[in-house]
Amino acid sequence: MKELLKITDLHASVNGTEILKGLNLTINYGEVHAIMGQNGAGKSTLGAILTGNPAYEVTSGSIVYKNQDLLSMEPEIRAREGLFLSFQYPIEIPGVSMNNFMLAAINAKREHLKQEKMSASDFLKLMKEKRAFVELDSKFVKRSVNEGFSGGEKKRNEIFQMAMLEPTLAILDETDSGLDVDALRIVANGINKIKTDDNSFIIVTHYQRLLEYIVPDFVHILADGKIIQTGDKTLATKIENEGFAFLNNGTNH
Amino acid sequence: MELIINKNETKNVVLLNSTEEQIRIVQNEESSICVHFIDLFPQAVQVSRNVVVEQVGKNSQVQLFAMGYLQQKQQINFVSNVLHNCPWGHSEQLLKYVLTDTASFSFLGKVYVAPNAQKIVAQQTNKNILLSPQAKVQTQPQLEIYADDVQASHGASTGAFDENMLFYFLQRGIARPTAEKMLIRAFYHEIIETLPTEYQTEIEKEFATNDNLL
Ligand SMILES: Nc1ncnc2c1ncn2[C@@H]1O[C@H](COP(=O)(O)OP(=O)(O)OP(=O)(O)O)[C@@H](O)[C@H]1O
Ligand SMILES: [Mg+2]
After folding, report:
1. Mean of the per-residue pLDDT values for chain A?
2. Residues in chain B within 8 Å Cβ distance of A94
3. Quick one: pLDDT band at residue A166, thresholds 50, 70, 90?
4. CATH 3.30.450.20 assigned to A3-249
5. From the CA atom positions of chain B, what is the Rg in Å?
6. How far is B214 from B199, CA to CA, in rounded Å?
7. Is the pLDDT reported for residue A250 higher than 80?
8. Alpha-carbon distance A120 to B140, whole Å?
9. Burial tier of A123 (Cβ tally within 10 Å: 0-12, 13-18, 19+)
10. B chain contacts of residue A85, beta-carbon cutoff 8 Å
11. Which tens digit of pLDDT belongs to each residue from B12-24?
12. pLDDT interval class at A106 (50, 70, 90)
């Protein structure tokens, strides 16, 4: 088992409030980890910390990613090194077309990897190929990034971008929320096509639905700023059926 | 500089990094004038620009567009004074500036509508982006309206780029300078698309090659 990510005793805060309080998590190449937990537990905070969002502050702990100190890397370098976040609330960028946005992203990564810039024709070919992954209509790539996209379209667009950028570690923050049944299946199939032994996923979700398509190796429960329980996919079923109440009556901790 | 626009005449003027301080436009009946001020790479440190538009004939239209990128100690003080003296006149003003370092921009937009000048439509918008906390903007509309059947509107906004938006770029591997450049282009877009094609091409070229400025 080759280690991709190791989070040790992570403490993090936002606006002076401590949200993560000693979180530990190790992810190996090729693994799928689901993270569940109540609203406000800190799931999105974890994604923000991993991707280097400057609004969130790490107060102590360490994160090693690809044998490097992740916390000393700039957010754009983390991205070029294969870290991808499918945002819970994707941002709209009026006036910047998906085409230009993706070309800039692809070329930034290629430059970082000391590869040549992608030619316009190769880029268009790649866009077309990856659009097919998530059945994204061509009209979306001519539009401004996420502008006026419906909730579900935004989520599908996140996964399209993920397919384009071929991340090593993808964090999907409630990508399943807001997707209709068909879209969920399409997105899940897209993710399965991208998944290999050389990349890993953190899937943040409130529902078991997505996990029926993408079977997680581990399911973690985040509460009180820590991973308080880890199980296999049956843990997700249990949460779906019973809620988080069983955590409070002392059965498991 | 004085421009007399004759009856029924239509005119387009593009002023690139102009240091002209007094610009007077007189519009006769049914005339139309569109002026673009492009202050993208100004050499001058300070420009006080005073633009007066006098509509002396009915049914005339004026469009004033201004866009700029000001850096270091550059300063533009822009005063426009649109005088609607006759009925059925239109004026549209759109000014969009990006400021960095200690640059500053001020806009005083006066619109005057004479008592007999009915059916006037006057619009004024000033939007600015601040890339540095030391950059300064002051904007002030001043409407003097003496006719009662008039549609006049003004709007202004000044601010930095949204940090969440910038983070979205960073998370996709796009560094901040490139992200800002893309957002600045998007910001200027609505003005650039009103320019004659040859200027559009020139500006696009400048954007593509001028890496240290934007
Ligand atoms: N920018 C912020 N400013 C203030 N508080 C914040 C900010 N971001 C997050 N928080 C707070 O931190 C806590 C954790 O938020 P987070 O978004 O990580 O929760 P979550 O587990 O993703 O919840 P959900 O399931 O609702 O998405 C919440 O109490 C939230 O209000
Ligand atoms: Mg969340």
Report:
1. 93
2. 186
3. very high
4. no
5. 18
6. 18
7. no
8. 45
9. middle
10. 171
11. 999 999 999 999 9
12. very high
- Judge: A108–B167 Cβ closer than 8 Å, yes or no: no
Q: In A176-205, which positions are buried (b, 16+ CB within 10 angstroms) versus exposed (e)?
A: bbbbeeebbebbbebbeebeeeebbbbbbb
pTM (two decimals): 0.90
Closest-approach residue (CA) in chain A for B167: A53
Contact between B56 and B4 under an 8 Å Cβ cutoff? The reply is: no
Please determine, for the modelled complex, whether the ipTM score is greater than 0.90. yes
Q: Left, alpha or beta for A91 (phi > 0: left; psi -120 to 50: alpha)? A: beta
pLDDT, tens digit, 9 for 90 and up, residues B130-167: 999 999 999 999 999 999 999 999 999 999 999 999 99
Closest by CA position to B31, among listed B52, B54, B51, B1: B54
Closest by CA position to A87, among listed A133, A15, A146, A33? A146
Position B25 scores a pLDDT of: 98
- Ligand in closest contact with the CA of A36: 1
Q: Is the pLDDT of residue A12 over 60?
A: yes
Q: Map chain B to HEC letters.
A: CEEEECCCCEEEEEEECCCCCEEEEEECCCCEEEEEEEECCCCCCEEEEEEEEEECCCCCEEEEEEEEEECCCCEEEEEEEEEECCCCCEEEEEEEEEECCCCEEEEEEEEEECCCCCCEEEEEEEEEEECCCCCEEEEEEEEEECCCCEEEEEEEEEECCCHHHHHHHHHCCCCHHHHHHHHHHHHHHHHHCCCCHHHHHHHHHHHHHCCCCC
Residues of chain B whose beta carbon is less than 8 angstroms from a beta carbon of chain A are 162-165, 167-176, 178, 182-183, 185-187, 189
Residues A142 and A172: beta-carbon distance below 8 Å: no
* Domain residue ranges of chain B, discontinuous segments joined by +: 2-160
Report the 10 Å Cβ neighbour count for B163: 12
Residues of B in contact with A145 (CB under 8 A): 168
Yes or no, beta carbons of A91 and B163 under 8 Å apart:
no
pLDDT of A248 above 90: no
Low-confidence ranges of chain B (pLDDT < 70): 210-214
Q: What residue ranges do the domains of chain A occupy?
A: 3-249
Q: How far is the CA of A251 from the centre of ligand 2 (A)?
A: 26
